[in-house]
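Colleagues,

For the teaching module next term, I've prepared a clean inverse folding example: a structure given as tokens, and then the sequence designed for it. I'd like students to try predicting residues themselves before seeing the answer, so please don't circulate the second half yet.
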């Protein structure tokens, strides 16, 4: 492997290898010298967001700029679209730009359903459940089957979450940009403890009853096969209904943590502060922040240091989420035309035979 190849793949040359920062610096110069080389830019992105490399704000921002540069040259570069969307959504937290990015991807590559799933997830995260439900229905219509197994699981779990939110009677969802919102008081009530854990709650509430049931069954004087089957059925029912109960309890106890996470996402989206100091110094805030990517932590620190508060009356503006419908229709029509053409060709071959 040549030196250039090792740099492009982010692989150290030997034991006296250069640091990741040195590799990135060299590739940055190489990309600047070859601005039209899309493959080189994509290799640079892979180095910047490699699993073993730190996802610093500088590296993520640089990778995002390279994704934009690739899309300017090749608007059908699926990997650049997907990587840029993930970076904006999960590593920069700029959700309004992420929504627009995924929408632009849908306009260019309408057959790819992952963009719709990501849009639905973002809309649910910011409390736009009505719009999220529309996107989920669109996903189910346009091709949920073409998603991977984990993505299908995420889609159905997201649909369940959205349906649960829409089924609530008050339909008053937390808006972090409104200082008088009751959700802030909900956060303050729970800010001295960390987010709830469903598995731990199950372990301390339901599992003891299951152990007790198993002990009672084994201590029977006349333990028959029928008794054992009956006991196993009771334990199984306890597990099923206990799991449902703890999940319901966890969902309800998680509301303050989810509200605070939404407030954090509004901060990274707008670059302005919405969280008061007493909440920012709480245990709940620290526990949530510890699980966030390094780039998000660094971006939040910069926002707090700037000390600029979100303007009153700010609203989250959505892009036109229907703008890709025409592109999808054209794509479907082109598929139908190809199928008809193939059918005519097959028929002519059959007639010749």
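(Answer key — instructors only)
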């Amino acid at each position: 492997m040549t030196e250039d190849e090792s740099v492009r793949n982010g692989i150290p040359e030997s034991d006296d290898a250069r640091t990741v920062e040195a590799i990135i610096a060299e590739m940055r110069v190489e990309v600047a010298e070859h601005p039209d080389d899309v493959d080189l830019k994509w290799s640079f992105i892979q180095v910047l967001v490699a699993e073993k490399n730190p996802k610093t704000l500088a590296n993520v921002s640089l990778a995002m700029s390279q994704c934009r540069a690739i899309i300017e040259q090749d608007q059908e570069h699926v990997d650049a679209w997907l990587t840029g969307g993930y970076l904006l959504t999960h590593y920069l937290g700029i959700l309004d730009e992420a929504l627009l990015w995924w929408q632009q991807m849908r306009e260019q590559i309408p057959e790819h359903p992952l963009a719709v799933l990501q849009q639905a997830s973002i809309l649910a995260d910011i409390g736009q459940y009505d719009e999220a439900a529309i996107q989920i229905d669109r996903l189910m219509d346009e091709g949920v089957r073409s998603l991977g197994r984990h993505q299908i699981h995420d889609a159905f779990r997201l649909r369940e979450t959205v349906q649960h939110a829409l089924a609530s009677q008050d339909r008053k969802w937390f808006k972090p940009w409104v200082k008088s919102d009751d959700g802030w008081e909900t956060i303050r009530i729970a800010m001295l403890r960390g987010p709830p854990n469903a598995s731990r709650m199950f372990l301390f509430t339901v599992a003891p009853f299951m152990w007790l049931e198993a002990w009672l069954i084994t201590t029977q004087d006349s333990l028959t096969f029928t008794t054992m089957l009956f006991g196993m059925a009771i334990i199984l029912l306890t597990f099923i209904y206990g799991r449902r109960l703890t999940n319901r309890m966890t969902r309800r106890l998680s509301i303050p943590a989810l509200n605070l996470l939404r407030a954090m996402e509004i901060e990274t989206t707008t670059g302005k502060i919405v969280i008061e100091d007493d909440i920012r110094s709480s245990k709940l805030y620290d526990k949530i922040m510890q699980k966030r990517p390094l780039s998000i932590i660094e971006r939040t620190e910069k926002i707090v240091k700037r000390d600029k508060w979100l303007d009153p009356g700010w609203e989250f503006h959505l892009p036109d989420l229907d703008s890709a419908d025409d592109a999808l229709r054209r794509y479907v029509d082109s598929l139908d035309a190809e199928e008809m053409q193939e059918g005519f060709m097959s028929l002519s071959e059959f007639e010749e035979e």
